[in-house]
Design goal:
The chain is an alpha/beta fold and 169 residues long. The chain has one domain: NAD(P)-binding Rossmann-like Domain (Rossmann fold, 3-Layer(aba) Sandwich). Helices cover 34% and strands 17% of the residues. Strand 1, helix 1 and strand 2 form a beta-alpha-beta unit. The structure holds NADP nicotinamide-adenine-dinucleotide phosphate.
């Protein structure tokens, strides 16, 4: 992901999402984070503090139905370059890569082990951090890799993936 790219991060207010949002902002991207409530929007801005630059747009919108998601994207105006979706909970449908509409884009599924989020600060060092997940999302976007599943069980695996994506592996 390079400076100026426009990325939508549904689930960005969450523990994993925080790391993705921070990494995308640090990479210079324009970041749009939808959230289902004003309360969560305000809380998230407080959590980010100075990292919540003017390149961050937090939009209160229910995107949890297909119609809601379509309205969200239509209302954004400018086209999106990337979507990273660390959304809470499990979805009982097909894997994301198998969604028919996805064949026009590269789609990656980052399969996570337990994550060191802001609410699991004293987790073992081997757990992957939300910040590292963000780095992988940025590196995936910047790479020419075809879409696929990427397994990230722990921080060592994530470091190897990052080396490969950055052409050092
Ligand atoms: N944390 C871990 O250790 C871990 C490990 C492996 C996999 N994962 C996966 O990573 C993803 C994110 O986990 P997380 O720990 O960051 O979760 P989280 O802190 O609960 O955050 C999830 C975010 O998703 C949004 N969301 C949208 N629709 C939702 C719905 N129907 N129900 C609940 N939340 C919804 C919420 O945003 P708003 O409330 O602002 O709308 C929330 O901030 C999940 O799919 C989880 O299974 C997490």
């Amino acid at each position: 992901m390079s400076a100026g790219r426009r990325v939508l991060i549904p689930g960005g207010t969450g523990g994993v999402g925080e790391g993705v949002v921070r990494a995308c902002l640090a990479a210079g991207a324009q970041v749009v984070v939808p959230t289902r409530s004003e309360r969560r929007a305000a809380e998230f801005r407080r959590i980010l503090g100075a990292a919540a630059s003017d390149r961050l747009q937090v939009v209160v919108h229910d995107y949890t139905t297909l119609e809601g998601a379509e309205r969200l994207v239509a209302g954004l105006g400018e086209p999106l370059d990337d979507v990273v979706a660390p959304i809470g909970g499990y979805w009982g449908g097909r894997p994301l890569q198998a969604i028919d509409a996805a064949d026009r884009q590269r789609v990656f599924a980052l399969v996570l082990g337990p994550v060191r989020t802001r609410s699991a600060g004293d987790a073992p060092p081997g757990w992957i951090s939300a910040d590292l997940i963000g780095e992988v999302a940025v590196a995936v976007s910047a790479s020419a890799e075809p879409g696929r599943e990427i397994r990230l069980p722990d921080s060592a695996a994530a470091a190897k993936v990052l080396d490969l994506l950055r052409g050092r592996g």
